[in-house]
Write a structure and sequence with these properties.
- It is built from two helices and four strands.
- It is mainly beta and 102 residues long.
- Among the domains are: 32 residues, putative 5-dehydro-2- deoxygluconokinase like fold (Single Sheet), CATH 2.20.150.30; 29 residues, no CATH class.
- Strands 1-2 form a two-stranded antiparallel ribbon.
- The protein is elongated.
């Protein structure tokens, strides 16, 4: 039976919502609904009325980057872009050769 732990998916670019560099992925948590007035505002305190599951989704962008010397599209988090982990390809000014009519 293969191990589908988090280690196997870090760096895989064809998976949805997984950062190529940092391995950030969708994580689960709780959304807590409360009612009442806080004590420091003069109330008797906030009471929990419900807890439901929710998802925390990372800010994943699809960018063209140089990976192992080749240009390919990868999914990276906005944090990885800000950290400078993504090397963008050089811009190219393409002009057709003289004598060739497009």
């Amino acid at each position: 039976m293969p191990n589908f732990g988090r280690d196997n998916f870090i760096g895989v670019s064809d998976m949805s919502r997984v950062c190529h560099f940092l391995g950030k992925r969708t994580s689960a948590g709780n959304s807590i609904a409360r009612r009442g007035k806080a004590k420091y505002l003069g109330g008797v305190g906030r009471k929990t009325t419900g807890v439901t599951k929710r998802k925390f989704k990372p800010n994943i962008q699809r960018v063209r980057a140089v990976v192992d010397g080749t240009v390919c599209r990868i999914k990276v988090s906005a944090k990885a872009i800000r950290m400078g982990l993504v090397q963008k390809p050089l811009k190219r000014n393409y002009k057709p050769e003289e004598g060739i009519v497009a």
